[in-house]
Design goal:
The protein has 10 helices and 12 strands. Strands 1-2-9-4-7-11 form a 6-stranded antiparallel beta sheet. Strands 3-8-5-6 form a 4-stranded antiparallel beta sheet. It has a two-stranded antiparallel sheet with strand order 10-12. By secondary structure, it is of the alpha+beta class. The relative contact order is 0.13. About 45% of the residues lie in helices and about 25% in strands. It has helices at about 90-100, 115-130, 140-155, 170-180, 185-195, 200-210, 215-230, 235-240, 245-260, 260-270, and strands at about 5-10, 15-25, 30, 35-45, 45-50, 55, 60-65, 70-75, 80-90, 105-110, 115, 155-160. It is globular and about 55 Å long. The two termini are about 35 Å apart. Helix 2 runs antiparallel to helix 3.
């Protein structure tokens, strides 16, 4: 049986999270993150879908995923996936942008998949500094150089006050799902809220977001559950508090989107001192 390695590292100084997966063949269903993802394919091939565009990923491909961008991937070919990523919250990214540009803004990456040797070298150097618990300022230096390269070459600044381009009705639905994720929400409820027929709502929402309203809701629930896992809340309580019918359903969906079971995620974070005591 092949050996899989799935690791998470959290750097409290920079407030970024590192994922490293080795020997993975798992399919990742379409989902999104509340923050940014910068990833590197080190080995293997993947069919990657982002914003309704398909890519074939190979070694040395770099992924640039903006917040709320729908994406997913699955195995392509015989080689298993070796991948690592830097996950950056919007608050952390706002601080980075201010450091680099002197302005409060967010970057919007205009390409989802790139290849550039200089950036690959910086990504690998940064990963090694994180894995080896480097304690002086070299870690932050490399990180800022990396982000400067990416922002200058592949991003456009988006001011904090700039309005979203999403349609008003879809925005209303997204906001409602965000505030009521813990409830049993019906399609009738969403249809009435949007003032649209159920079928038409499903069609325009899926076209706008790349996933259905229910999958969007599930992704919100998983994002909320990650914060609860970091707080040390028992897994069965998290499942119930985030709207899942049982722990098994929650665990299966969590692994399908994050690549780890909730228990493994919590154990790894706890080993790095990033999880509170169980309540």
């Amino acid at each position: 049986m092949k050996k899989e390695e799935r690791s998470i590292y959290y750097d409290t100084d920079l407030q970024v999270e590192i994922y490293e997966f080795k020997g993975i063949s798992q399919k990742f269903a379409s989902h999104f993150h509340e923050g940014y993802v910068i990833g590197l394919i080190e080995a293997g091939e993947r069919e990657f879908l982002c914003n309704n565009q398909k890519y074939t990923l190979v070694a040395n491909d770099i992924l640039l995923i903006n917040p709320l961008e729908t994406h997913g991937c699955e195995q392509f070919g015989d080689k298993d996936l070796h991948y690592f990523s830097i996950n950056i919250s919007k608050d952390t990214m706002k601080r980075i942008m201010f450091e680099i540009t002197g302005k409060e803004s967010y970057p919007h990456f205009n390409q989802s998949v790139i290849q550039q040797d200089d950036i690959i070298c910086l990504l690998r150097e940064f990963k090694e500094l994180i894995l080896n618990n480097h304690i002086d300022f070299k870690k932050e230096e490399v990180f800022l150089f990396l982000m400067e390269h990416l922002i200058n070459a592949y991003a456009e600044p988006v001011t904090i006050t700039e309005e979203c381009k999403e349609t008003e009705r879809i925005e209303i639905i997204c906001d409602y799902l965000e505030k009521n994720y813990f409830r049993n929400i019906s399609l009738d409820e969403l249809s009435l809220l949007a003032g649209l027929s159920k079928y038409y709502l499903l069609r325009i929402f899926t076209k706008e977001k790349g996933i259905s309203p229910h999958k969007y809701l599930e992704t919100i629930r998983i994002e909320k559950s990650k914060k609860m896992l970091e707080e040390g809340i028992p897994i069965i309580d998290i499942a119930l508090q985030t709207g899942f019918t049982d722990q098994s359903h929650f665990s299966n969906l969590f692994k399908s989107l994050i690549g780890l079971t909730p228990k493994s995620y919590q154990v790894i974070l706890k080993s790095y001192g990033n999880v509170g005591e169980e309540k």
